[in-house]
Amino acid sequence: MAAAAGTSAFSRFINSPVGPKTIHFWAPAMKWGLVIAGLGDLARPVDQISVRQQVSLAATGLIWTRWSTIITPKNYSLATVNFFVGCTAAYQLARVALNKRDAPPAAAETVTAAPTAA
User: Which of 13, 16, 68, 118 is the 20 to 30 A CA-CA neighbour of 95?
Assistant: First the structure.
């Protein structure tokens, strides 16, 4: 116990169950790339946003946020990155929904009757 009390915070971090010696550290670290890509897509025109992709990102982000808080060891880094993945995807979906709501209705095609032979 005395040896554990004398270890530095850095040493405890390195050797923790979610430290850099495990996948529990590196998977969330690499997943921040999805968040960065989502933030980059904020500049993309709304008509170029893939709704299916954003729905899947939002759903997996929210599901994995919950899952990472109930597993052992609890991985708050994974929960955080998944929360932000879900938030950026949900924001993109809101952009699409607002664009569809505010877009003028499509012009109805006028159908003219063909002239009849007299």
Answer: 68
Locus of tokens 């025109």: 45
* Residues 6 or more apart whose Cβ sits within 8 Å of residue 82: 28, 31, 60, 61, 62, 64, 65, 68
Q: Are 78 and 23 in contact (CB under 8 A)?
A: no
Closest CA to 29 of 77, 73, 84: 77
How far is the CA of 98 from the CAs of 3, 49, 101, 102, in angstroms? 59, 13, 5, 6
pLDDT digits (tens, 9 = 90+) for 9-63: 988 888 888 788 887 788 888 999 999 999 999 999 999 999 999 999 999 999 9
Taking the C-alpha atoms of residue 65 and residue 13, their distance in angstroms, rounded to an integer, is 22
The answer to whether 49 and 41 are in contact (CB under 8 A) is: yes
Read off the pTM: 0.73
Q: Which residues of 86-117 are buried (b: 16+ CB within 10 A; e: fewer)?
A: bbbbbebbebeeeeeeeeeeeeeeeeeeeeee
